[in-house]
Amino acid sequence: SRMCGSCGSEHYPRIDPVAIMLAEHDGRLLLGRQPQYPPGRYSALAGFVEPGESIEAAVTRELKEEAGIDVRNVRYICSQPWPFPNSLMIGAWAEAIDDSLTIDLTELDDARWFTREEVISALAGDQAAPFQPPPRTAIARTLLDAWVDGLK
Question: Cβ atoms within 10 A of the Cβ of 79, count?
Fold first, then answer.
C-alpha cells in the first residue's frame, strides 16, 4: 500500500483479476491460440473478470464469447500473479455441454479440441506433438499439468 502524504490515508493498489480456463468435453481439452503466440503454440483461454462478476460467471462468459461454447460445473483450480502489474490469474476448469465451436477471430487465431494423449505428447516436448504448450512458468501450463494428472 501507499500512504498519502497530504491526508495520511492508505491506498491499496488496484487488482485486475483474470480468469484463465480449461474447458473439457468427452475427455478432450479446448485450447486456443492468439496471434502473438509463437507458431504452433496453443494455450488456455482467458479474459478479465468484469466488475461485479463471479469467477464462475467470467469463465462461462469468456468461453461463450471466445469459443461459442456453453459450460457447466465450473471449478477453481489454482491462481498465479500475472507478470504485469496489478493482475491476478485465477485458473479454472469447466465442463463443455457440447463440442461445437464458434471462434471469435478478433480474439483468437484458432481454437480446437485436443485429446489427453495429444496434451501429454505436447507437455513431454515431443516434436511430433500437434501443438507447442505454454512455458513452464505460465499458469496455463500448470492447468495443463493438473488436467493430465486428473485435476487432483
Answer: 17
Q: Are 105 and 98 in contact (CB under 8 A)?
A: no
How far apart, in whole angstroms, are the C-alpha atoms of residue 89 and residue 97? Answer: 24
3-class secondary-structure state, position 18: strand
Q: pLDDT of 2-52, one tens digit each?
A: 888 899 898 887 788 999 999 999 999 999 999 999 999 999 999 999 999
Tell me how far CA of residue 3 lies from CA of 16, 87, 134, 147, in angstroms.
21, 21, 38, 43
Number of Cβ atoms within 10 Å of the Cβ of 36: 7
Query: What is the C-alpha to C-alpha distance for residues 69 and 82, in angstroms, rounded to an integer?
Result: 26
Tell me the pTM: 0.89
Please, which residues bridge with residue 32 across strands? 43, 111
Q: Which amino acid is at 142?
A: T
Contacts of 32 (CB under 8 A, 6+ apart): 42, 43, 44, 45, 66, 67, 103, 108, 109, 110, 111, 112
